[in-house]
TrEMBL record:
SUPFAM superfamilies with a match to the protein in the record: CRAL/TRIO domain, CRAL/TRIO N-terminal domain
Organism: Pseudictyota dubia
Signal peptide: none
Residues in CRAL-TRIO domain copies: 145-299
Stored InterPro entries: CRAL-TRIO_dom, CRAL-TRIO_dom_sf, CRAL/TRIO_N_dom_sf, PI_Transfer_CRAL-TRIO
Pfam family, any one: CRAL_TRIO
PANTHER family per UniProt: GH16843P
Coiled-coil ranges (or none): none
Molecular function GO terms recorded: phosphatidylinositol transfer activity
Gene3D superfamilies: CRAL-TRIO lipid binding domain
Name of the featured protein: CRAL-TRIO domain-containing protein
Length: 330
């Protein structure tokens, strides 16, 4: 199976090293191992595949049971910390997330652009549907990943004034797809040393007509809170007009306190420079983030979706080889 880019077949990049080990505190390692021991083998595998690096290797058989359990424990740790050390509740939430990932086929969403000739007809048709809907949702560049902070955490940008579909199912799946890309980028860039992303909202030019239905916004907030705990380092809301602040008043009660504490409103060049200047280099920033930001403001989303490796940001398109189809055997 081959993907064609610029009429030239390109081979797959393979991960050769597992990410760095998780850094535990106090009794966290013991608690996480206990949580993992209570999972079935299929649950452990799904949990481990929250690591894109692990998923890529697992499809070619290049992983061990120990590696699987270590990645599953990393997922357990995020839920344990999100639940303030309540092991039973953390396990319940973790299993809910595992079931959710299987239900919406997160692995298929991550693989669909790189398996254009899937040997199973049903899966091939399913991936066609995934690609079509992701293009509809993300083709306007309403959300994308481009640039990194000084610690190698990817910059996950949102431009709310841009239009996407409000189809209830794919509104959510589109953002899941892009969140998974963001996490994969941070993992690759830092060798697994970091597992969070920096979210930046560009609210310039925003009007109240750009707000999504409150019901969809609430579902997205709950989805991210329930199934992506401990994944946000910062959330910056830049140049938000009064029209958004009215919407914020409506959605704010549904955001969990930990995430809410990470949200920072920055308006104007000075405020953005004071806060973001120490976090992001100008060669990684767009102009809406920092005055003098050198990252271009336009983005070729078709190239980003279908030609840039899943774990590379849009600005890395010129230096990264296309992601090889990662499914070779059945």
């Amino acid at each position: 199976m081959t993907v064609i880019v610029d009429d030239a077949p390109t081979r797959v990049r393979e991960d050769t090293e597992a990410p760095s080990p998780v850094l535990y505190q106090n009794d966290e390692e013991k608690f996480c191992k206990e949580m993992v021991s209570k999972l079935s083998d299929p649950e452990k595998e799904t949990a481990a595949k929250t690591s894109y690096s692990y998923m890529s290797r697992s499809l070619s058989g290049k992983r061990s049971t120990e590696e699987r359990d270590n990645h599953a424990a990393a997922m357990a740790l995020r839920h344990l910390r999100a639940e303030k050390g309540d092991q039973d509740l953390a396990l319940k939430k973790m299993q809910s997330t595992i079931a959710h990932r299987e239900e919406i086929d997160v692995d298929g969403l991550r693989r669909c652009f790189y398996e254009l000739e899937h040997p199973d007809e049903a899966t091939a048709n399913q991936y066609d549907e995934y690609r079509k809907n992701i293009r509809i949702q993300m083709g306007s560049a309403k959300a994308y990943v481009r640039g990194y902070d000084k610690k190698g955490r990817v910059l996950y940008s949102f431009v709310p004034r841009r239009k996407n579909s409000e189809d209830p199912e794919w509104y959510l799946k589109g953002y899941v797809y892009m969140m998974e890309r963001a996490l994969a980028c941070t993992e690759r860039k830092t060798g697994g040393a970091e597992d969070k992303v920096i979210v930046l909202f560009d609210y310039s030019g925003y009007k109240s007509a750009h707000s999504p239905p409150l019901s969809l916004a609430k579902k997205l907030v709950f989805l991210m809170s329930d199934h992506y705990p401990e994944r946000l380092e910062h959330v910056f809301v830049l140049d938000a007009p009064l029209a958004f602040r009215a919407f914020w008043i409506l959605i704010r009660p549904f955001i969990d306190p930990v995430t809410k504490a990470k949200v920072m409103f920055l308006t104007g060049k000075t405020a953005k420079s004071d806060k973001l200047g120490g976090l992001i280099e100008k060669n990684q920033a767009e102009s809406f983030m920092l005055q003098g930001g050198k990252m271009p403001s336009d983005i070729d989303m078709e190239s980003f979706l279908s030609r840039v490796p899943f774990d590379h940001a849009a600005n890395e398109a010129q230096t990264a080889a296309i992601q090889e189809p990662i499914l070779q055997q059945h």
